[in-house]
Amino acid sequence: MKIMFVGLGLIGGSMALALEGYPGLERYAVDCDEWTRFEALGRGAVRAAWPDVQEAPLGEMDVVVLCLHPEAAASFVREHACRLRPGALLTDVCGVKRPIVDAVASLEERPFVYLGGHPMAGRECGGFASATGDLFRGSHYILTPDSSVPGECVALMRQLVTFMGCADVVLSTPDAHDERIAYTSQLMHVMALALCDQHLLFDSYGFEGGSFRGATRVAALDPKLWCELFWANRDALGALVSELRARLGDYETLLAGGDRQALYERLVASSERKKDFDRLRSQTPSETPLFK
């Protein structure tokens, strides 16, 4: 089986490295950066790499993984997906599904199978220099199949990501994916950025502990990428920011009021919700609720 990674950044490079030793798998790549191609070949991540997708033998691949930003992935679909062989599996790792789903839907002919994906793993530093074969160990991998995706394609992706070290596969629809990711990822980045905009930031060096470092860790982001992600998902993210403002307003009211017991009861209720959520981790995959 031949697989091609279009983009060898942190995620694409780590996937290529993590799949070393998968039975019968030949790994190839496209990346415009010469150093990245040289390093990927040197580290044995891929058998061959091309600087331009026009030169790459897309039609020979069984699986093509788009490891690009959402807008670039959508452009790839519109411009190059016609070169994929009939029955080939096209997947992606985009943090927002809507742009690429719309691009696939816009095609008049679609001989390939599209199955959206999103590994819930990453680091602050991108690029192949940060790629590692254990990046996905213990992480969730989201798949967004529709009724047109054959069961064997879902099964193949399960096998690949399990080999990569993922803990489980979570099934979702593209819309449900984008809404949940707005909450679990994008809103976390908004919160981290807002904390770093507060006036005490630079006066607080030496006072920060693990909770502050954890809460602000993702604020050191790639502005171009995250602007694209926020904008592509702005309706869902905007609604969640509005809800968060209301939740923070509740605490503002409690802190300004004279009812300490009410504040305590709110802390108990919120803490119990977190504990209930954490109990999901102890369930077996067949018992864990999946996105519908």
Describe this structure in words.
The chain has 292 residues and is an alpha/beta fold. It contains ten helices and eight strands. The protein has helices at 10-18, 34-42, 70-80, 98-105, 151-164, 174-196, 210-216, 223-232, 234-256, 260-279, and strands at 2-6, 26-30, 48-50, 63-66, 89-92, 113-119, 140-144, 168-171. An eight-stranded mixed β-sheet has the order 3-2-1-4-5-6-7-8, covered by helices on one side. Strand 5 (89-92), helix 4 and strand 6 form a beta-alpha-beta unit. The longest helix is centred in the middle third of the chain and has 23 residues, at 174-196. It is elongated, with a radius of gyration of 21 Å. The relative contact order is 0.10.
